[in-house]
Amino acid sequence: MGTVVQLKNQINDSYFQLKDSVDDKLILTEEKIKSKLTSEIRLVQEMTNYHIETGGKRLRALLTLGTAKLCGYSKGSRDVNLAACVELIHSATLMHDDVIDEGVVRRGKKTLNKIWNNQSSVLIGDYLLSRCFEMMVDDGNIEVLKLLSSTSSKIAQGEVMQLQHKGEVDMLEETYLKIISAKTAELFAAATKVGAIISNVDSKEKDALEFYGRNLGLTFQIADDTLDYNSELKLFGKKIGQDFFEGKITLPIILLFQELDSLEKEILIEIFAKKIRLKDEFDKVISLIKKYKIIDQCYQKAQHYINLASNSLTVFKDSKQKEILKNLTSFSLTRNF
After folding, report:
1. What is the pTM of this model?
2. Which of 62, 198, 222, 261 could cross-link to 302 by cystine, CB 3.0-4.6 Å?
3. pLDDT of 286-306, one tens digit each?
């Protein structure tokens, strides 16, 4: 655990360094997203405007811009167009997620489905995806089109897989990893590989960045799932316990179940079998998580993927951009937003 503690004690501003390194391109990406979501239909415009105003880290867009810069892409606007495309795929999946999970808060604000309704939110998510495919076609690169369309398909399959295993506290860790690989890591991998594709680098560099993105995505999702049970941290825009109350089985619960005695296992099974879970039940689960030091175990798992992501960048020459992307791997464990 020493390395994790050290990482958490570092002032890790790699996210902001990445943002600063491509700031001019990010501004253009935001403008591209706004222009692509313009509609003559009043409700579409209202909902997309609200979505844009809720902001977000734009991490996937930043990864496309950052990896393109790492690979030497400088002329043209393909990086901006595809960064916007990747971000819109992410946004569409969030809208669909909120409907499936009956979410009410995201990024500290009410979700689209809470303000309007589920039907409108699903259709707006579909609208965003249709815009994405227009942008892929406009780019004109068959490799990009194949990659991003395949990624969209895998994300949807990951959502279905998660639904299949809802409330299953004895879920295998392998199954959990398959779910988050499809739901989260695939888009991270696509975002980083796209930056390499448009830069016309060798397959070695493409593969390295795809591997980097996938392991960064796994790190990010494990950390995100862990934060949901880490009562020691106060996060901006994230309600602690959200996954618990939605009945999602994530790594903290999977690892906890493996540690529990038979009576405690029965209690946990009973809690997640309910349609509605209560605050005192959440407090009970938190106390068990503390008892068995599950948060530390989760961070140890994340550290494995941090190392894989970081090591994959060795194929690139040393540079400021490489250093930023390497440091970004520990951002997930130290962030508070």
Report:
1. 0.90
2. 222
3. 999 999 999 999 999 999 999
